[in-house]
Amino acid sequence: MHGNLKRLTTNRENYVTTLARLFDYSTAAFPNKKLSCYVDGSNSYTYAEFRRICLDLSHRMSRFGIKAGDKVAILSQNMPNWTVAYFSVVPFGRVVVPILPDSSAAEVENILRHSNTKVIYISKRQLPKLSQEMIGSLTLVIDIETFEIIHHDDSSFTCEGWVKNPQADDLAAIIYTSGTSGKAKGVMLSHRNLCHNVIAASRAQKASMGYRWLSILPMSHAYEMAFSVLYPLYVGGCVYYIKRPPTPSILMDAMAKVRPQIMCSVPLIIEKVYKTSIVPTIKRSRVLSWMQEHTPRVLYFLVGRRLYKSFGGKLKFFGVGGAKLDSTVEEFLLKCRFPYAIGYGLTETAPLITNACVHKTVVGSCGVPAYNVEVKLDNVNPETGEGEIVVRGDNVMLGYYKDPERTREVLTYDGWFHTHDLASKDNKGRYYIKGRLGNMIIGASGENIYPEEIEEVINGVDGVNESLVMERDGKLVALIKFDDAIINWDQASEDKFFENLQARKEAIMEYVNKHVSKQSKVNDVEVMKEPFEKTATNKIRRFKYKDAHGDDYLQEHPEEAKDNTQEEKEDGTAEK
């Protein structure tokens, strides 16, 4: 690193314009500080150790001819070595291709082929997703857990893999996303895009050297990558990882041990805590129930303090993004003074667009534009004040990889990105997301119907796990997945099963239609047997369910319901 370190620290925002500079700055500024480890303390790195291993891995790729501009994929569950793999790539002009660990084998191979990937870091758990043909087509396959080479192409060992110091507008990452609307897109993010989000994060939530992060979302997702991989490097933080999937008990144990100051989450996690722990606890207690009716402020204080302690007792920032937070849950968090914040963004904006910081949130709002991001509403309906959110700034992607046609559909020549999200704005500049432009349903009288708003009402019903509202033949149909304890599909062959199911459907439809507008009333309810297929941030992949059928079909074919349940038991895939 050139120049005086103290001067660079003071002028950090202007210096960190590429991930190479972020790498140089952090490893020089915090060499002896801990960068990352598992919750149990294993696989620990200091910033100096991190730098040494990243350089060693970069030199190894250079010997096999992997040069600046070449693509290097990462396919793994969260771990300290994920960040090492990432920074063996991007500071040297190579392009990283992070792949979501829940991708299917077909999706993985499609991404590798489409991106022209030459090297992949992969965990043992994910290795079966690569065919022998795919492995043979790659220059290097590296075990991310040990950094041992699993496969190498001898003919590529030429020691001619030159690297370069990347510039701000050079391509840094290609993130493939299908979102909720179908065909995957390779989002091209530059060094400028990713570094802008680091600066925006620091403006939204200050963090200091030694702050502890607990990482629970996939590191390959833009949200976690920006705020729990890159931002900690900027401030000298330490990130802790969980070895096993974060079930409630494992997560609570991890929070007690780490006592994190910063966590990034999706709504589903805090909503589950509220619905499965907080609400039942209040209902079971006569004292708490009485307090809820007569001294609610005292109740919120006591429950809020207990909730805060359950998250380790040191939390300063609990970021919620990736989907809309249930308004009932948000109102509860607000009254409890829980340090939550709301963020809104997309992979295409690396990802931050708007934010509502801790103790500055308003129920239902995704906040104000993030630092140095222009946001406005396009094609505004004069009656409702609703329009499409469009964005311009250093956070907006370069485009979709090898897909100029779809790039032109969302990106104007003067740099405005069309999000396809509909929102309104209040007189203080706060935005309120209504729904996706593609999801919006036009009612019989031309009114706009947002299925997300109806789903929020449905999801507030006891026993409902999740829901999806669709239009079929001009009518609104709600697809509902109940909690397993409410609907036991093992009893699907019994006479009273569908009678009870029908009674629940009618009760839900009656409740929902009392709590939504006239044009948003649901005409039918179908109960889904399987959980909905979701994206990495737990948003339902809507396009998968346009022609889906639930219990109505199974009622007509009860033998199939019985056979499917038995088949799932045999192959171990039945719902737990």
Helix/strand structural class: alpha/beta
Q: Can you tell me the CATH class of the domain at 5-30 and 39-190? A: Alpha Beta
Helix content: 25-40%
CATH architecture of the domain at 5-30 and 39-190: 3-Layer(aba) Sandwich
| Average of pLDDT | 88
**Total beta-strand segments:** 26
| Overall morphology | globular
Report how far the terminal alpha carbons are from each other. 52 Å
The main β sheet shows up as: 9 strands, mixed
**Gyration radius, rounded:** 25 Å
- Poorly predicted runs are 553-576
- Strand coverage percent: 15-25%
The largest beta-sheet arranges its strands as 2-1-11-10-12-13-14-15-16
CATH topology of the domain at 5-30 and 39-190: Rossmann fold
Feature tags:
single chain, 576 residues, alpha/beta, Rossmann fold, GMP Synthetase, Chain A, domain 3, 9-stranded mixed beta sheet, 5-stranded mixed beta sheet, 26 strands, disordered C terminus
Present the secondary structure layout:
Blueprint: H1 5-10, H2 12-15, H3 19-29, E1 34-38, E2 45-46, H4 47-63, E3 71-75, H5 80-87, E4 95-99, H6 105-115, E5 117-122, H7 132-137, E6 140-143, E7 149-152, E8 171-177, E9 185-190, H8 191-204, E10 212-215, H9 222-235, E11 238-241, H10 248-258, E12 262-265, H11 267-284, H12 286-294, H13 296-310, E13 317-320, H14 327-335, E14 340-345, E15 352-356, E16 368-369, E17 373-378, E18 387-393, E19 399-400, H15 404-410, E20 417-425, E21 431-436, E22 441-442, E23 448-449, H16 451-459, E24 464-472, E25 475-482, H17 497-514, E26 524-527, H18 551-556, H19 558-571
Parallel strand pairs: 1-11, 3-4, 3-5, 5-6, 10-11, 10-12, 12-13, 13-14, 25-26
Antiparallel strand pairs: 1-2, 6-7, 8-9, 9-19, 14-15, 15-16, 17-18, 18-20, 20-21, 22-23, 24-25
Helix pairs in contact: 3-4, 3-9, 8-9, 11-12, 12-13
